[in-house]
Design brief:
By secondary structure, the protein is mainly alpha-helical. Helix content is 66%, strand content 6%. The chain has two domains: 351 residues, no CATH class; 79 residues, no CATH class. The strands form four sheets. The chain has a three-stranded antiparallel sheet. Strands 1-2 form a two-stranded antiparallel sheet. Strands 3-4 form a two-stranded antiparallel ribbon. Helix 2 packs parallel to helix 12. The longest helix is centred in the C-terminal third of the chain and has 30 residues. Bound molecules: uridine-diphosphate-N-acetylglucosamine (UD1) and magnesium ion. InterPro entries: Glycosyl_transferase_4 (IPR000715), GPT (IPR033895).
Amino acid sequence: MTQKITTGWFISLFTIVGACLGLIWTVFIGDGEPLIASLGFSGIAFSASYCLIVWLGDSFKRVGLKGKDISKADRRELPETMGAVCAVVYLMCMIVFLPFAFYEYFVILTSGGGNRDATIEGVETGRLLHRFPHNKLGEYLSAILSLQSMVILGVADDLFDIRWRHKLFLPVIAAIPMLMVYYVDFGVTNIVVPTSLQEYIGTALLDLSWGYYLYMAAIAIFCPNSINILAGINGIEVSQSIIIGSFIAINDLLYISVEGHPATDSHLFSLYFLLPFLGVSLALWWHNWYPSKVFVGDTYCYFAGMTFAVVGILGHFSKTLLLLFVPQIFNFIYSAPQLFRLVPCPRHRLPKFNARSGLMEPSRAPFEKPPKWYIALILGILEKLRLIRVWRNKEGVIMECSNLTLINLWIVTFGPMREDKATMGLMGLQIACSIIGLLIRHKAALLVFPHDNLSI
Ligand code: UD1
Ligand code: MG
């Protein structure tokens, strides 16, 4: 079914674009804040993505970028890889925004600084060029390069369905430009030791050296893949990304609102990358929410995860980032027996749609031969803890178990439910975990560390 943009939507999008162009213009002529321009670009990115997703859907299907909506009675075919549309709009936005992000330095160095002749002479002789933050420009460009590489690898995955053990490591390649700039520019590999441990270790700062780079590479692997495996019901991939992105933005605003905070620049950098991301994601969400009209594809999951990894690593708040990924961390650990093939892992682990009731039920992983004793023991313990459902034959041997995903666990716990109810429930959990995560970061961290770095 071909989608169309209604007149109402067209007028609304036109108004949004007009207002956003106005915002950008005021920044351009009035030496305004780059953040306002970023907001303007995000609105334009939202509108462009909204229209392009509608207009390009059929073309994507024609070239084979499509997938069946498994949890619907008619299993209709929908355009897939719509994340690629969002990612391209986003990257273009970030490239056009580049001069705005560094506008203030051009103003000081060239005209508009109030002393045109003097500064121009300074630039020509190179004396004032040291004021330009080349390191920040390097960070910005490397972030774009990492995201761009991730998007290309994501599209390759959507096209060729790369094997799990291979695609798990794709993000490491994409992360290299960003890690390289981190090494050259910031290079801090110390972590603050909790107060209670400082006495034993004998230092307040522990240098993890190359271990810190391994840790950052692990974050770059984890963020994209963890979103890709908390997936498979309408709207869940984009919804979780919007929630995580919004909470990182709230955390950034907390720092920026403290006047003269030393981390202001890092958090501004994070907001420049997050606001347009939220813009394109909201547009995608509109089309992907239940009942979906398009699928996001692996491209979106990788693009979203990599955006978070980039801002977390280059913004120097990767540990706070992990506090916002608690459901994803749980899902990853819970999935591990299937990911590492200790328990059979079917191609799709999303819940099973019951066409008669219209509800989602836990999907099952069938054992071809009886599980080894220690696997059976672990599954038995998980069953006692109500963390899994198992099906046995007459002899009591385990034949099947519910697939080890948070989505299935939600349905095992609360019973069969409609697809959108499951997404809403899980996203409620994501919001609750994020609120607790930020409270832990800014309140409970004081119990373990000497001070919260929100204060200066
Ligand atoms: C990951 C999961 C897999 C899950 C799939 C769903 C692991 C190891 N892999 O695989 O279990 O089934 O994501 O995205 O956990 N689809 C729907 N409804 C939706 C979203 C997707 O039916 O709301 C189906 C469509 O047929 C779509 C396909 O899932 O074409 C996309 O799957 P894909 O992203 O290729 O799966 P993986 O990322 O490999
Ligand atoms: Mg996927």
